Amino acid sequence: MSDVACSSGTFLKALPTLTEYPHDLLSGRHGIVAKEKQGGHRMTDLMIVVGARPQFIKTAPVIKEISSRNIDLTVVHSGQHYDPEMSAIFFRELRIPKPSVNLQSGSGSHARQTATIMRRLEATILAHNPKIVVVAGDTNTTLAAAITGAKLNVPVAHIEAGLRSYDLSMPEEINRRLTDHCSVLLFAPTKTAMRNLRNEGLQRMAYLTGDTMVDSLRMVMPVLRSREADLLKRFKLKSRDYVLVTLHRPSNVDDLDRLRRIQNAIKNVAMRLPVLFLVHPRTRERLSRIKVLEGATGREFTLASPQGYIENLALMKNASCLLTDSGGMQKESFILHVPCITLRANTEWPETLQGGANRLINRPGRMSREILRVALDEQLRTRITSLKNPFGDGRASSRIVRLLESSLQHLK
Ligand code: UD1
User: Which residue owns the Cα nearest ligand 1 atom 7?
Assistant: First the structure.
């Protein structure tokens, strides 16, 4: 896969033996839950809980790997994301089987959304009696599922453990810290994540597996290549001649003054280079309040709905620069060798900052100049192509499933 850099050397090669497992944590918890669930009927091996866009991507290769083994799996959708373009399309493109249960939690304040998922998931866990609950990432769904599993004494496994931005104003930072601390199996994507877990005393449960998003990217690369040309044609864009924009963090879009300044900066960029802005539902709602297109000038400024996984990656791969506040897209652009500007003060993926591949800018006033500088810098593009990928070799899912399988054997 020539477009995606790989390095396997640093990742877990030989899996730990069972003596290295957190035995007491796994068996102690499971013993209690089995007793409490006398009424429970079917015992499923694993229950994976997903709900928001990035989780479909992170778990797809894990689900695929589980399906190829003799492990009974129940997939639960929390319903946090429900628009077809935020949910169904990912199941189709990544060939994830339809979830057995949809909790239909929908939107709401953080407390309301998290609590609704917890209330509905508790009943589902009791009915399905899983041996391990698997969660991924850092959304409200992740936290709700981790707390619910842990409170029922079901061992919780966390995919993408150990990420830290050290910014507690981000809901995701709260979610990931609490999730790590109530999980007993922590699958870390990078060495930095392992170090963060060690610093919090969680090293006993932590395994360096690599990042499952690299596995997903590899899975779709051949299809992606076959769709690039059509997609560029559809949006009337030329390869390496446009800026791709996605923004959805509350810190950027909930403050309408800030959003207006961001919008002005993007319009300035559009005077020199075409801009394609893929608008998340949260952002769409906020933009509608400030009449975004009013006074739009420049070569081109296109607003479009969020795209599917493959389309989004293809548009990113061909962009001259990405402007985002997403965690996952910072990493994907690094792997695809596309320069990135992140509209945030910090990042949970510090590895992407090496060699100037990703830059943090928090002031909209500085944005347009920097975007144009980065987008037009051919040397930067060449330089970042040679950077080593610290996120894994595309085999994280197989390591994770082997660890889960060993844990299940121990729980039998
Ligand atoms: C969530 C995650 C974030 C992740 C992002 C990816 C949390 C705290 N945040 O943020 O980490 O990066 O997903 O997209 O879990 N909405 C729709 N249709 C949908 C889904 C949401 O219209 O299918 C609207 C909701 O009404 C709500 C807004 O979008 O007003 C935000 O949705 P929500 O799931 O609360 O958070 P995200 O901003 O998507």
Answer: 139
Q: Whose CA is nearest to atom 12 of ligand 1?
A: 326
DSSP code, position 298: S
What is the model's pLDDT at position 19? 43
pLDDT at 127 over 80: yes
Predicted confidence (pLDDT) per residue in 179-203, tens digit: 999 999 999 999 999 999 999 999 9
Residue 188: strand pairing partners: 208
Average of per-residue pLDDT across 270-295: 85
Neighbours of 199 (CB within 10 A): 11
Catalytic residue among 30, 248, 280, 337: 248
pTM of the model: 0.92
Ligand 1 near 246 CB (within 6 A): no
Q: For position 36, what pLDDT does the model report? A: 47
- Compute the C-alpha angle 345/348/353, nearest 5°: 70
DSSP 143-202: HHHHHHHHHTT--EEEETTT-----TTSHHHHHHHHHHHT-SEEEESSHHHHHHHHHTT-
CB-based contacts of 129: which residues, under 8 Å, 6+ apart? 37, 40, 41, 42, 43, 44
